[in-house]
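All the exercises in this workshop are built on plain-text protein records. A record pairs a protein's sequence with a compact description of its fold. Backbone structure tokens are a discrete shorthand for how the chain folds in space. Once this layout is familiar, the rest of the handout is easier to follow. As an example, a complete record with its sequence and its structure tokens follows.
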Amino acid sequence: MSTVDAGVTRFTASPDELAGLTASVARTAEHYDLTAEFPQQGLDAAHRAGVFAAVIGERFGGGGLDAIERLRVLQALGQGDPSVALIFANTLGTHVAQAHHDVWPAELYERVLAETAARPVSINTARAEPELGAPARGGLPATTARRTASGWVVSGRKAYVTASTGLDYHLVWAKTDDPTPRVGHVIVPGDSPGIEVVPTWDHLGLRASATHDVIYDEVEAPTENFLEIPYQGVYRDPAGQGGALALGHTALYVGVARAAQEFFLRFANERVPAALGRPIATTERIQTVAGEIEAQLVTAETLLYDITARAVAGDEIAIARTPLAKVQIVRAAVAAVETAVAAIGNPGLTRHNPLQRHLRDVLSARVHPPQEDQALLNAGRRALGVES
């Protein structure tokens, strides 16, 4: 079995390592936000730090970081560049699944390990579709996997495929052409013939995430590259039901809020209005605002790490509450950034200051499943004892 240990920095998620990771990724964040280019330099910096190898299972030669350590990495990356963090978050999901369940074909995963030793290999599921929308809402994909003598041929169009222009492996969510369709992901290398990226991503936040549409036109894959998901007549996305891994994406936005706080504190200590004659950080108003921001972030981090620790330990109540925790963490992170912007005023919305970028980025937290309305609906039904 191939491993990733040769020549790769061992990353242990120590406080100093996390701070260094944030700083190294942050160096190019403004550039990529302005250009909306694929954030290759940020991903390279994360790879040099060793985080891509760190989330691979120990039995494959990786660092085997645990769930809490992975959240700390995502928060640190999000504080530096959330587009890099999002691409990494999608990738680590595959490595965590492989470490526990051997989901991928062994030979193909060995190839991924060998490539990861040399560069930041990105992996992501291509799930949403223009007609279907978010798969967490239910329904079957229009994308099909047709049987051939040598495997599968995949055809369809996917929306919001993060890292599309630089994606090394696409896990294309599709249904088979069987009389009773099977549902699963077909693993397709990013350089396969028939893949076309359609540049549709022009959002306010996470501009460098390359979350474009992708067309798969008769893309071939071997038989073993189909990873089946049990289907019993009505497909529901298991990722939308909460669980110990559900807060991974949420963690990166807590990092965004910490970056906003960092700018606010520096601005408050450096800003000396002529009429005041001293830094605004010395005023009770700004001190109270700083306290409000910290209170929001303490709330977010406490929920994030405590409920994850309990869920990983098998606490069924914590697992059931994970979607609600996501709602509250996102609300707190957004509130922290909005509070900083409101207190600073015009400088907070000025293009050459990073705070406006943090505000745009943190708003993207709301679109990740489970989305707020669905999480609240499910929680309300449970509380009322009403079946869905």
Q: What stands out?
A: The chain has three domains: 15-120, 126-229, 238-384. The chain has twelve helices and eight strands. Confidence is low (pLDDT under 50) at residues 231-244.
